[in-house]
């Protein structure tokens, strides 16, 4: 029967592992230097060498966790496991990494079930295997949590996972570390048995050179080079030594001499001289490898992963369910907090402002048909909470202390002027009206508020024009230019000086300090001073009050931190709750969007949160030059102090309850 070349390739038994000209660089150092190694299937291959020689690097390269250098000048680089690309081995390989790589919250049983499902084992099969492995590896009760196991026990669980699905190839990084001599003997016996009976290949690394006598093939490694590879007895005979340790010593001295020679002859560093020992690296049997390097032409690549995709998803799902069952608090954090945060965002940010407290003074006699009454009737009472005052001084005082967000001051000739402006289209008359009868004061530090007020008054003046056309306002004829004149009322608004950044900065400063607690208070202020954040604020107020407010807010943050630390015992939970609270506080305290944008019922609660008044006060101090005599500043200090006391009492209470 005739075979085409490709058919022969398909039939050939692939090597267990095949490395051709593999160089791995980590940082700026070549950790593996042009490694050539081919191992046939069946038997134990032990990689020996001192700490730091590159054993783990070789293993990690084999399993695809490290990528070798592309060496275009040398022979074609190749890495394969059982004829497959290193990323495609899936079910056929059992891998035990040097690090634990275990889910510490799982029990031994759950961990074995998790990995069993990942490789598509049936529950019965997993049960049967884990009972065997628990006995064989002398593991504690299967319901014991991994986090409570000793380091050695955890390594044995990791070893059990590698053996669980009875793979054709075992890649084990130091499987016998931390294992007592008796169990070590049992492990070697088991490996010998499965490699002989089931044609399994075990590739392992070890520090214990003498235990490697039980391996079929061993390879000595030093400084990223394979010094020599062969059967243990053959190496002993060849080097006429009694122990493998002595062989290794001799090889090391030999390689050292070669390196020294290279050095003294001032030869250029070249791969051939450095990998002189690699030349004696063997291919145990020259069976042709039928696998190909490119993923696209590897027929088994997908078939390894696809059949148990569903089972893998199931394993991941079960793992997460168990995790949530054990820690329901995490469930709240993971699912409810994002929902809450989105809901709060929708409630607090981007909404139209409402209930803005506005002073209204009119020196006109308010009666039917007067301009003042017209304006008053047109003001949207959902947006503005209009409070009428007799004198501008009275309103101005309340405006200055932050009780009012703006004032409308209407002069006694407003109605007459309104009609005159509406009917007189001549630009030359504009100066005549400069001492306007309609004056508006606004809190310019709140940019969103300025927009809302301006927008609302433009709307009001536009509707006055509509009223005229409908005949409600006056019988005097108006033309297009008179409309323009009416719109010019808007020019009476003060020029906007502050940006959105100015609005945000006071809140950001306080939230940073609050959440990073009192220890960072001084530091944050220093940072803000040094990185120029404070320079961006045209600070008008006392640095003493703003600093004091920062300190007391920091103290409040610290007491809040104390409450968290008494409630939660794990770092992760404490961290999660702090993170979960940060965003809602940011939204609810009016840092991003004015409080006037929140529904009124919500505002009555949020204005008493620890940071809300403090942020308002901080804006007042930094942007408007407020002092301690301002009611909001006083409220800010009191509210922060009361919250701090509440948090402290709560901490003591929880602490005492826990001790009982
Ligand atoms: N990510 C990295 N970046 C830079 N160098 C690394 C990195 N990982 C490992 N190395 C270096 O590579 C060398 C080989 O490390 P490797 O872990 O392969 O040694 P090893 O033979 O397995 O040692 P041990 O037996 O102690 O585990 C060491 O000198 C190590 O410092």
TrEMBL record:
**Keyword Membrane annotated:** yes
Database matches in CDD domains: ABC_DR_subfamily_A
Question: Where is this protein chiefly located?
Answer: membrane
Entry's Gene Ontology molecular function annotations: ABC-type transporter activity; ATP binding; ATP hydrolysis activity
The UniProt transmembrane annotation reads 329-350, 503-523, 543-565, 577-595, 636-655
What protein am I looking at?
Uncharacterized protein
Compartment list: Membrane
The ABC transporter domain, residue ranges? 17-248
Sequence ranges assigned to domain ABC transmembrane type-2 in this UniProt record: 558-658
| Tagged with keyword Transmembrane helix | yes
The record lists the organism as: Rotaria magnacalcarata
How does the protein's chain sit in the membrane according to the entry? Multi-pass membrane protein
Query: Pfam families from the xrefs?
Result: ABC2_membrane, ABC_tran
Top-level taxon of the source organism: Eukaryota
Matching entries from Gene3D superfamilies are given as: P-loop containing nucleotide triphosphate hydrolases
Gene Ontology terms: cellular component: ATP-binding cassette (ABC) transporter complex
**What keywords were assigned to this record?**
ATP-binding, Membrane, Nucleotide-binding, Transmembrane, Transmembrane helix
């Amino acid at each position: 029967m005739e075979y085409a070349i490709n058919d022969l390739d398909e039939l050939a038994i692939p090597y267990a592992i095949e490395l051709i000209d593999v160089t791995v660089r980590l940082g700026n150092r070549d950790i593996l230097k042009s490694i050539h190694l081919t191992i046939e299937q069946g038997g134990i291959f032990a990689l020996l060498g001192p700490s730091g020689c590159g054993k783990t690097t070789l293993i990690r390269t084999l399993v695809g966790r490290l990528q070798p250098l592309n060496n275009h000048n040398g022979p074609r680089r190749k890495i394969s496991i059982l004829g497959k690309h290193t990323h495609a081995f899936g079910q056929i390989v059992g891998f035990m990494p040097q690090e634990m790589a275990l889910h510490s919250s799982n029990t031994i049983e759950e961990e074995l079930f998790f990995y069993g499902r990942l490789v598509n084992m049936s529950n019965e099969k997993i049960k049967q295997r884990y009972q065997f492995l628990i006995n064989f590896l002398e593991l504690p009760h299967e319901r014991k949590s991994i986090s409570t196991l000793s380091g050695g026990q955890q390594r044995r669980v990791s070893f059990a996972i590698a053996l669980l699905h009875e793979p054709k190839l075992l890649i084990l990084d130091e499987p016998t570390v931390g294992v007592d001599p008796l169990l070590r003997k049992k492990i070697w016996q088991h490996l010998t048995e499965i490699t002989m009976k089931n044609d399994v290949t075990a590739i392992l690394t070890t520090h214990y050179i003498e235990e490697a006598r039980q391996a079929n093939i061993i390879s000595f490694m030093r400084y990223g080079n394979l010094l020599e590879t062969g059967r243990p007895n053959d190496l002993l005979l060849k080097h006429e030594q009694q122990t493998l340790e002595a062989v290794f010593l001799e090889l090391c001295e030999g390689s050292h001499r070669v390196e020294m020679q290279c050095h003294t002859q001032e030869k250029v560093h070249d791969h051939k001289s450095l990998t002189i020992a690699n030349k004696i690296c063997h291919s145990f049997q020259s069976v042709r490898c039928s696998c190909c390097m490119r993923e696209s032409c590897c027929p088994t690549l997908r078939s390894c992963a696809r059949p148990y995709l569903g089972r893998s998803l199931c394993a991941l799902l079960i793992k997460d369910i168990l995790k949530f069952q054990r820690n329901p608090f995490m469930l709240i954090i993971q699912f409810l907090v994002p929902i809450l945060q989105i809901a709060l965002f929708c409630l607090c940010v981007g909404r139209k402002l409402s209930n803005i407290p506005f002073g209204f003074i009119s020196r006109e006699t308010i009666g039917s048909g007067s301009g003042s009454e017209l304006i008053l009737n047109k003001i949207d009472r959902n947006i503005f909470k209009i409070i009428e005052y007799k004198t501008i001084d009275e309103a101005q005082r309340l405006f200055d202390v932050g009780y009012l967000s703006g004032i409308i001051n209407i002069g006694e000739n407003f109605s007459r002027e309104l009609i005159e402006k509406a009917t007189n289209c001549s630009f030359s008359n504009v100066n005549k009206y400069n001492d306007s009868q309609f004056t508006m004061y606004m809190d310019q530090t709140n940019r969103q508020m300025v927009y809302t007020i301006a927008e609302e008054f433009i709307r009001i003046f536009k509707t006055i024009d509509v009223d005229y056309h409908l005949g409600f306002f006056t019988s005097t004829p108006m033309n297009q230019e008179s409309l323009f004149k009416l719109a010019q009322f808007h020019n009476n608004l003060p020029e906007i000086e502050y940006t959105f950044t100015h609005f945000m900065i006071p809140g950001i400063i306080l939230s940073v300090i609050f959440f990073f607690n009192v220890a960072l208070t001084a530091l944050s202020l220093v940072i803000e001073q040094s990185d120029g954040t404070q320079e961006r604020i045209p600070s008008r107020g006392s640095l003493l009050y703003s600093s004091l407010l920062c300190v007391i807010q920091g103290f409040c943050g610290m007491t809040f931190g104390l409450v968290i630390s008494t409630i939660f015992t794990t770092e992760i939970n404490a961290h999660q709750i702090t993170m979960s609270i940060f965003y809602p506080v940011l939204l609810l305290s009016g840092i991003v969007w004015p409080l006037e944008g929140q529904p009124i019922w919500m505002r009555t609660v949020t204005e008493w949160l620890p940071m809300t008044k403090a942020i308002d006060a901080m804006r007042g101090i930094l942007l408007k030059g407020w002092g301690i005599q301002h009611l909001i500043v006083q409220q800010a200090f009191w509210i922060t102090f009361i919250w701090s006391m509440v948090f402290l009492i709560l901490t003591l209470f929880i602490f005492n309850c826990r001790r009982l």
